[in-house]
Design brief:
The protein has a five-stranded antiparallel sheet with strand order 4-3-2-1-5, covered by helices on one side. The radius of gyration is 14 Å and the shape is globular. It has three helices and five strands, in the order H-H-E-E-H-E-E-E. Strand 1 and strand 2 form a beta hairpin. By secondary structure, the chain is of the alpha+beta class.
Length: 111
């Protein structure tokens, strides 16, 4: 069965295509892309987001992240390349006090 998803967001479409290519599953690509967008929405809020992802070394990581400008804005210099260009989602780790990132296809769940 083929599933067709229509979206106005080119970023979500990019996520879907990239994850689908890496996992070989359009269903996985679509579900992970929507999960990423929900995580980003929650990270932009004042309370942040609690989520789990798989690190590149295979370790499972539980994280509390934010994209709230009041918390991480002073650490952004605007001179670098966006991790989105490499298929990653960047966030401010509220426990470690620094920027971290994970590959789109490695996001497991939002708690």
């Amino acid at each position: 069965m083929n599933t067709i998803v229509t979206t106005n967001s080119t970023l979500v479409a990019t996520h879907i295509l990239s994850i689908t290519a890496k996992t070989g599953s359009s269903l996985m690509g679509t579900s992970k892309a929507l999960l990423i967008e929900e995580a980003k929405r929650q990270m932009r809020s004042t309370s942040g987001c609690h989520f789990i992802y798989k690190k590149s070394n295979g370790e499972i990581r539980e994280a509390f992240g934010t994209l709230n400008p009041a918390i991480c804005g002073k650490h952004i210099n605007g001179r670098g390349m966006s991790p989105e260009n490499w298929g990653c989602c960047c966030y401010w780790d509220m426990e470690k006090g620094g920027f971290r990132s994970f590959k789109w296809e490695n996001l497991i769940t939002i708690l």
